[in-house]
Amino acid sequence: MLLIMAWLAINRTILFSLIFCSCPLVVLAQSTSASPTPSPSPESKTETRDPIERSDEFKSKLTFSVYFTNGDRLYDLNLRHQFGPLTAWIAGFDDPNGIKLIRVGAQYDYKKAWFHLVPTIEVATTKAVSGSLYSELGAGNTIAIVGVSRTNLKSFFDLFWDPSDAVQLGVGHKLSSYDRIQAYSIIDVRLHTGQQNTHVVYRHKLNANDGITFDAVFKSGHEDSGRFIRTVGIGTYYDRPKWFWKVYYDPHVNFTSHTMVRTGIGLKF
Question: Does pTM surpass 0.70?
């Protein structure tokens, strides 16, 4: 009888020991499986570019501009949106003492290896029509710039203030993922005015959220009055991730006797 009772006591002790030792293993197994490490995905990869560099990827821009010239204020509102390689826009121009118009336009970006071609067309409610072909040639950091533009010789106001029936020749160099410098001339080849605008454009990233562009232009040619002029203008474009601001000082605007100061602010979305 004593042997039986001793045998039962030994078995009871062994059973309790097994239960006690197995509990931490169960808890450990449960805690380990409760927080599995997720598999890496393309969405979880860290974006290494700064916000100002990614701002060029926004599909839409809304720009409001005010032009000051000869004591008057002129207004321009421009909305553009990118549909893949196609960009379209609609804009309105208002001179309180003169012309008012709406213009619509589109451009297509074609890129393949060393060849980048951008055909553009724009029409206005004044029956003005303009078209252009712009190209960049080169696969490295340095490119050649070649372009040509034509109109039906009806005047209309645009965001660009260079000769409209012209050729464009120049060169550009990429300094970094954001910084670049360009020099090009836009030369009248249709109206025999000798008008030529030569631009030197420098784009620079100030920090992760700020960029700035300087545009110096040397102008020469005959005004509408026939007088030959030489002058220099300057523009500044301040860039933020979701908005921008620009101002230009443009003497003899459109080869007239007037000086124009243009300023504008825009949103990217």
Answer: yes
